[in-house]
Amino acid sequence: MKQLINELGSKNIPFLFILDYELKSPIVVPLNEINSSNIKYNFNGTANYNTKNVHQNITLKSYPIDKGLYQSTFQKVIQEQLEGNNYLLNLTFSTPIKINDSLEKIFTNAAAKYKLLYNDKFVCFSPETFVQIKNGVIWSYPMKGTIDASLPNAKETLLNNHKETQEHTTIVDLIRNDLSQVANNVHVTKFKYLDKIKTSNKQLLQMSSEIKGFLPKNYQTQLGDILYKLLPAGSITGAPKKKCIELINQFETHKRGYYTGVMGIFDGENLDSAVMIRFIEKQQDKYVYKSGGGIRIDSNFEQEYEELNDKIYIPIH
User: Residue 114's domain spans which residues?
Assistant: First the structure.
């Protein structure tokens, strides 16, 4: 698939890519070959379906995972950090949910910068850009840090929270280092800004930063190499990345699959992509919502468990 992406990029052929977390089942399809009854997408307004919104009352009920299971796994992560084996790890779980309508209706009604519906198997509505490439410049927008916007002084609380700031800074540094593998003059252009996300029952504030670098002149012939060197995304693994990937495989109780992978499109000139978070998966006749968060040695178990569940939502207009 890496070679196919390089080939399509070198020929300026527009394509869609869906790269799973473990890169075991990557999907790459020229845009003119996509059947919109099987795959629907909307990436920053570039879509292959009628984007007119049909407002419907979509409801989601979650059945939170056992708190004891979460706590025992959380403690394993903390123990690894006490032993110096990592200093930030993104821990995820699958939470059973019930929804009152189809994945397609959820896809149509969800409000997000990046949306994908794949073969009635999963729907993703992600707020997080992975990388954008425009005229030889590569950008990344790591997102780390969440708070309920209704809390008193929520903005100041999030921006001044030591644990959240350390976690965010770690990921920004990791992504900057990752981009330096493929680009020159990589630097942070905007640090710790907040986006507001509206869900069906609350509003959340999420903290992001902006990082920029410059690609070589022939970058379009190397798009596959560029993507594969950057994967998996640092914001959903942790630091150091290689060790965190080992620990994720050891500690997590589910297979991530396409969750926390990367999806995006190349339009023949520029590339836009997202980290596949905010993710509902159909498993036979049931559904799960995959979510998680970053764990540091100073993390609070109760707060992390709450964040895991706060991220189980459908964003609405």
Answer: 2-310
